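Journal club side-thread
Mid-discussion, someone asked how the predicted structure for our own chain would compare to the paper's figures. Pasting it here so we can look after the session.
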Amino acid sequence: MKKNSIKSKLLPLIFLLLTLNVAEAQQIDTVIVNDVYISYFSYQYHNPLYVVYKVYQGGGDCDRKAFHFKTGNLPNSATPADYKGSGYDEGHLADAKDFASDCFREEETFRFYNCVPQTPKLNRGIWKHFETEIRKLSQNDSVLVICGSIFGNKTMGPDNIAIPEECWKLVFSLSTKKKLYAFTCPNDDSNSFIPIEVDDLKKRLNYKVVELSNFQ
């Protein structure tokens, strides 16, 4: 057999093995639990892979102007220096406004294990739109929100903080157990979202979302 032929057969195999290694690397290293949300954090990506929280009658009048993101003494956390000059927003996963009836709880959302780098168009556009819609739903129903990221190879800042390629969100009614929203958003300037089936999202993620065992 010619060397070129052997090489052509080996390259797809090597690519597959590299892909599998990347997939396996996306693991949850620590879980942070407080009275507001649960964060599943990856030391490799310096970000939460996903965050889970419940909200009922979200909203309030707490003034957030004095709040700033903190590390919470978490190892391998992003820092303000990573975001400075990056062009990315500190994009909340558990939305601060949902807990604005209690200033202590709202301040708890300002942790780097509850945010990922999002473009301003995403963070202040379609992502904010759905946060508002979910808060409206929560006035009459208790909802479960699960949201996270799909990471690629893009990084920022002195600590090489991973930048999501996409952000995703699932919302379920806790009274009916029915899905209310399921979508992904490209982390770019398109300000768009793509509806997705829960099972299809599971297949795309390189980490397990344990809370989805109770939902379809």
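Post-session note: The chain is about 25% helix and 30% strand.
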